[in-house]
Amino acid sequence: MTVPSARRRGSAWLNDERTRAFLFQALIFGAVIAVLTYLGHDATVNLRQQGISFGFGFLEHEAGFEISPALIPYTPAGSYTYAMLVGLLNTLMVAAIGVVFATAIGLLVGLLRLSGNWLIGRLALGYVELMRNTPLVLQLFVWWNVLRISAPGPRAAWQVIPGVFVSNRGVALPVPAYDPGFRWVLMALVAGILAAMGLAYWARRRQERTGQPFPTAGVALALIVLPPAAVFVALGAPFHLDMPKLGAFNFRGGVTVTPEFAALVVGLVVYTAAFIGEIVRGGIQAVSRGQSEAALALGLKRRHVLRLVVLPQAVRTMIPPLTNEYLNLAKNSTLAVAIGFADYFSVTNTILNQTGHAIEAMTLVAAVYLSLSLSLSLLMNLYNRHVALVER
Amino acid sequence: MTDIAQPAPAGPLPQAYRWLRANLFGTPLSAALTLLVLYALIRLVPPLFDWAIVKATWTAPNEQACAAKGGACWAFITTWYRFILFGRYPYAEQWRPAAVVLLLILLLLASCDRRLWGRALAVAWVAGVIAVFVLMGGGVLGLSPVDTDLWNGLPLALILAVGGLALSFPLALALALGRRSQLRGIRAFSVAYIEFFRGLPFITVLFMAAHMVPLFLPPGMTTALLWRIEVAFVLFLAAYLAEAVRGGLQAIPRGQYEAASSLGLGYWRQMRLIILPQALRIAIPPLVGTFIGAFKDTALVSFVGLFDLLQDVAVGTNDPGWRSSYVEGYAFVAAIYFVFCYAMSRYSRSLEARR
Questions:
Q1: Any CB–CB contact under 8 A between A140 and chain B?
Q2: Number of domains in chain A
Q3: Among A36, A147, A199, B27, whose CB has the most other CB atoms within 10 angstroms?
């Protein structure tokens, strides 16, 4: 082995590692800045030629278009900024509902995939493969067309489960009616949850100190369920559902969501649940069998093996990809633009088409989705650093 | 473990019985679920079969003629399949996009075989890409020129995805190495690039390419929409591929880097000879996964004005004779996507199993 040390003397300065590192980086950054300056120059010339003035002043102008549904009171007389806020709230609503349902269904799908029942395992696999191997936008089109074109009019609406009606006007759902007495039940529930949290904290401390276990799960459940139930009965059951009923032309009562909203949420949930199901399955399978065998050998009961040994390790591997999947769901909600649901992206896109301020509108789109993803991504990286196995 | 002592089952019937007991009727809950699922299948499958096969119409002038039999109107597909697959490409010349599709599928298949990986395959890819452009665009070898606006349907999807993969890969390698580099400036730049594109929904990147990029081009210069969208694919895909490669790089034990250094190899030779060959091999399954995602994302380009498979179906169902044939159209497109994506995911899984 000959080490080329003689060469180092010739131009020592240029061969110094630090100089080279500096020059290399300066070169790359110089190139990036040059390209950006050039593009910026082009943009100013182009904008001047097209007679568009750059700036965000247009956001104060009147929007002039309808947005439905809107979570906060909105009229077309509102400003563009306000319209974008309405759209942003719609995006967050879709993402929040989607994440909750996709997690629940995904968990179920993952467990079904692992079930010992051959038929059910196969069926779950078929579902997962169908969802994962076709484009989401195609699935959204199918749901949307089913709801808009294939679904019957309100008079012949499909009653999927009692009280839920699907027609070409949308999906009518029952909602809990507001009842003044119900607020006491809610307060009892909150008090019960707080008491249960305190109990869990106390039981853990006592077990750490004395080694004495406490039946936390059962007592906590009782603390959460019993007080609200008692208040509920004491007040004479102040709860009823506001059921949708067929009116002259459409459903009255309950809540009717638009076909666009229903198609978007159902499509996103059904699609994302397939991915989450695979994450759940992979996470549980990734815990080696030796772990549960060792736990059994230590004398732990079967349910304790799952809860104390397998699940904590499975969750460790599941959380990062799960966060990623939630992020994907939020990003995929922009496909609302394909079926005409007014989320943040479609509202901004409408504004772009009305005003022609492409650069400003797209900057605002990028800013919102980036801050959404980056904050989640940052959390995920911190968590990943926390749980990753450390090598030397 | 107690089964070991039992005598081996005699004949096929007890074996089948044992299988049924173990896999379908293991516990009361399992048995109940099996019966429930069987009931649902009996209620659902025969009507579906009726609709799709028994009562289906395979040739008809329009969907009104299909209505008589009451089943699926596959006549929509048999009438429109050329338009759905190749869009507005000149009808007499449609053997050219068909050849392109075949060529790209053959190249992808060849790339799946590990024994073929090498210089010959690289040369085949370069030649293949040139052939794709010659065949699609024409203008040479006596082929009539065809505008990129008319590159529609399935060849469009394959060109966007495969071209995006091939062109973004060098960029992805640079970004992955940059993210793991000792140089702070380079690392910061790579992280910023990757997180920027990974943080954006793809459809917004497409909209930027369609609406915003023309403003940044030199005044008077125009580019075909297809190339702007292809660049969007390349830039977007590079961020995701870089993360897949980074995963491979992270899986290489530090001892490999140290051993390569102690052999006197410089950074680039270390990467080229020792690290990347191992890292890329590990990164293949996530790379294939990213490619499947990119292929599915080609279904989004209709929203910026390109004629992909979905847009072609929309054109077909705009015809007064086929207004409600979207079910058959979507089923056809879904089947095409499914065949490609399922084959690729099976391939990726077989690689993982071999490791």
A1: no
A2: 2
A3: A147
Any idea which residue has 């909150």 for tokens? A190
Same domain, A156 and A267: yes
Structure confidence at residue B224 (pLDDT): 81
In tens, the pLDDT along A180-212 reads: 777 777 888 888 888 888 888 888 888 888 877
In a domain, A245, yes or no: no
What lies within 8 Å, CB to CB, of A94 at 6+ separation is: A261, A264, A265, A268, A333, A336, A341, A343
What is the distance between the alpha carbons of residues A349 and A337, in angstroms, rounded to a whole number? 8
- Say how many CB pairs under 8 Å bridge A and B: 151
pLDDT exceeds cutoff 80 at A9: no
Please answer whether residues A120 and B37 qualify as being in contact, where contact means their C-beta atoms are separated by less than 8 angstroms: yes
Contacts of B202 in chain A (CB under 8 A): 331
* CB nearest A362 (choices: B207, B217, B219): B207
Most confident of A107-111, A173-177, A269-273, A322-326: A269-273
- Which structural domain, as residue segments, surrounds residue A149? 80-163+257-387
pLDDT class for A6, splitting at 50, 70, 90?
very low
Same domain for A152 and A287:
yes
Q: Does the pTM of the predicted model rise above 0.95?
A: no
- Please, which pLDDT band fits residue A127 given cuts at 50, 70 and 90? very high
Q: Could you write out the three-class secondary structure of A257-321?
A: ECHHHHHHHHHHHHHHHHHHHHHHHHHHHHCCHHHHHHHHHCCCCHHHHHHHHHHHHHHHHHHHH
Q: What is the mean pLDDT of chain A?
A: 81
Rounded Cα distance between B300 and B280, Å, is: 29
Euclidean distance between CA atoms B245 and B39, whole angstroms:
47
Contact A119 B38 (CB under 8 A): yes
Residue of chain A whose alpha carbon sits nearest to that of B220? A46
As for the ipTM of the complex, it is 0.85
Probe site for chain A from B39, B205, B207 (most A CB atoms < 10 A): B207
pLDDT at A2: 46
d(CA B301, CA B149): 13
**Integer Cα distance of B160 and B178 in angstroms:** 26
In a domain, A73, yes or no: no
Instruction: Let me know whether A276 and A375 are in one domain.
Output: yes
Q: A335 and A221: one domain? A: no
Which of A2-11, A24-33, B278-287 is predicted least confidently? A2-11
Looking at the structure, do residues A271 and A339 belong to the same domain, yes or no?
yes
